[in-house]
Amino acid sequence: MKLKKLVKVLLSCVVAGALFTGCGDNGGQPADDSSASTVKFGMMSLLNSDEKSFGDILAAVEEQTGLNNTRHLPKFYDSLKTMQMSIDAGAIEEISLYKSVAGYLVAKNDKYELVPNNALNKISYSFCFAVRQDDEMLKDELNKVIDEMKADGTLDVLIDEYITNVDKVKEIPAVKISTIDGAQKIKVGVTGDLPPLDLVLADNSPAGFNTAMLAEIAKRLGKNVEIVQIESGARAAALSSKVIDVAFWAVVPFGIDGIPSDIDEPDGTDLSTPYFRDNVAHIRLKDKK
Predict the structure, then answer these.
(1) In this predicted structure, what is the pLDDT of residue 258?
(2) C-alpha distances in angstroms, 174 versus 80, 210, 241?
(3) By C-alpha distance, which of 281, 276, 253 is closest to 160?
(4) 97 phi, psi to nearest 5 deg
(5) Is residue 42 part of a domain?
(6) What backbone phi and psi angles, to 5 degrees, belong to 63?
């Protein structure tokens, strides 16, 4: 399989002004609750919210759950790597991740620990594929394969092998995606830095659960898959401009009232049937309590 690395397609707050309107350091600061302590945390950028607006949503969530002694102030990033650099430098105190990714990072790196009793842990993400609205046939094909993999148990096997029981001590092995001479090719955007979900290894080989999903989908569809590594904030633009045909996506329709289900859904796209679900978890440096 040919791995094409997209060179730093990064949507900054300036470039993405139409999407993000509040990328300053005071995003999410509650106006009138001086009694609550504050925690600044990093998270992946949202398409349909800015830091201030999402901070207000989180304040309401914390009031709703009764854990309102702490106010979480979000700061948006486009990659896990930049969040890790920021927490190491003291610019943020926590990182918000999918639970599977948080658990993997804590197991692999002794400087991190999970944050307990976090109201945001009740937020649940539903994973799916995003395709352009004019590519309805591809979406239908993906839905058909996802339903088949659920029905025959293949999806459960992949979740068990690559997420639930993944060996966190060993490095994640590369996943080989077979190719078929002359078959149609679809280009799929992955971040490549969210182990064990998806990862691009040092030798540019793809690895992780999402890659294993793609390998099975490619085989069942009889198509070739080319993986394009792309930062999280650039996926929507890459999809609409046809740099990629498919992007991994996660939406938030579960868990907490008050968070719009379309808060991170890209315009001009359709989403496939969900194939995996994971909660939020926060990590922090052990010496930053």
Answers:
(1) 72
(2) 20, 12, 29
(3) 276
(4) -140, 170
(5) no
(6) -65, -45
Distance between CA atoms of residues 131 and 116, nearest Å: 36
**Which residue from 288, 282, 284 is spatially nearest to 112, judged by alpha carbons?**
284
More confident call, 30 vs 187? 187
pLDDT band at 256 (very low <50, low <70, confident <90, very high): low
Per the structure block, which two tokens stand in for 149?
């993999």
| Predicted model pTM | 0.81
pLDDT of residue 80: 92
| Number of domains within the chain | 1
CATH assignment at residue 215: 3.40.190
Tell me, yes or no, whether 119 lies in a domain: no
Any long-range contacts for 33-39 (C-beta under 8 Å, 24+ apart)?
33/59, 33/68, 33/71, 36/68, 36/69, 36/70, 36/71, 37/69, 37/70, 37/71, 38/70, 38/71, 38/72, 38/73, 39/70, 39/71, 39/72, 39/73, 39/93, 39/94
Provide, for the chain, the percentages of residues in helix, strand and coil under a 3-state DSSP scheme, each rounded to the nearest 5: 30, 25, 45
Q: Is residue 235 part of a domain?
A: yes
pLDDT tens per residue, range 52-94: 999 998 888 777 766 667 788 999 998 899 999 999 999 999 9
266 domain-assigned: yes
Of all residues in the chain, what percent carry a pLDDT higher than 90?
Answer: 56
**Unique residue bearing structure tokens 């996802």:** 146
Which structural domain, as residue segments, surrounds residue 267? 4-8+125-278
Q: At what angle do helices 136-151 and 209-221 cross, to 10 degrees?
A: 110
